[in-house]
What does this fold into?
Amino acid sequence: MNYTEIMVRYGELSTKGKNRKDFISRLNGNVTKVMRGLDKLSIRPHRDRMHIQLNGEDYQEVITRLRKVFGIQTFSPSIKVKKDFEEVKKVALEMMQEVYEDGMTFKVNTRRSDHEFELDTNEINLQLGDYIFTNIEGIQAEMRKPDVKLLVEVRQDGIYLSNQVIKGAGGMPVGTAGKAELMLSGGIDSPVAGYLAMKRGVELEMVHFYSPPYTSENALRKAKELTGKLAAYSGPIKFIAVPFTEIQETIKSELPEGYLMTIQRRFMMRLTDLIRERNNGLAIFNGEAVGQVASQTLESMVAINDVTNTPILRPVSNMDKNEIIEIAEDIDTFDLSIQPFEDCCTVFAPPSPKTRPNLEKARFYESKLDVEGLIQRSLDGIVVSTVMPNEEFLTQEDTEINELL
Ligand code: ATP
Ligand code: MG
It folds into this structure.
């Protein structure tokens, strides 16, 4: 069909009272960001709807991108016709013919913001319904649960018709909840945690620890490519690569094996928190799930969380692995996550980490290290870049790690 605009219905807005303006202006900004390159579009945010005029851009491309924008409940591709009821009937019939299947039921649903128009809502519903009923053989009217609703909106500048309601991503526009850091590994869980955080309106920055030469370029590429997948939901994302080799080597050579993992994690948490503070983030998100592995028992969380008072949010903490995988598949991160490029934790994982580390012991062992020096040198080596929506890294030619950063 020759759609002329996409009509967008906001999500969860009604409960947000005075934040409505912020919600709408964020959403407007976020839609504009994901539509980058589709220059003919004009995006008009109104109080209860947003109208995206296509002006000749491909509506399917717009829909594909729109599906990933949080804060949208549903949207409908629409056709604008001039305010002439004959014209409305003609286009409406074409639209219904296009989707008609044997035995289909329908209903006409009219809204009117222009009260001057010659016909009122009821008259439009009846006359248009009648016209479609007589011109499509076999179609049935059904008021309660029709297969297709033909939506008619009479506005000042024209009449808008649509017969599809597409489900949006839901949630809140990214940015309305403030900014936070996500600890992003190359695994399955942390990208899902990131997606769930963004869905609640959080703007994320990625913190990724890497340990050359123990971890490969591809491990880093994979983390960046995962970031690209998430950026499709938010626009460009800051990717902060934190060198972790010296810390891991030091811990491994100086501390008892049972505490390697706990203390590595304490360092990761400290570093992430310092980066968060520097960047004015409000919280830290990670992909921990209770009881999934040794580092994710409640005792471990106590021993690791000890290094900060910052809120540590774990969106997947209560989910089963297969529930997490289901989301990972939906957001297209799963296939990437299972590619076998070892990240820094796998390489330095002790064969039998303590599942119930003792907090006092963790503090004691750690105090034998030059914590400040190790942290400072790691911070000094940080490299920051920006990852674009769906940007790919694994397909790049082989490069040095430095070029990749
Ligand atoms: P994931 O699938 O997210 O890697 P996991 O089940 O493999 O999680 P762990 O490897 O124990 O679990 O990691 C727990 C969490 O710690 C991760 O979800 C992530 O938030 C953080 N984390 C682990 N490794 C890294 C890393 N190299 N860089 C940044 N964060 C990390
Ligand atoms: Mg992992």
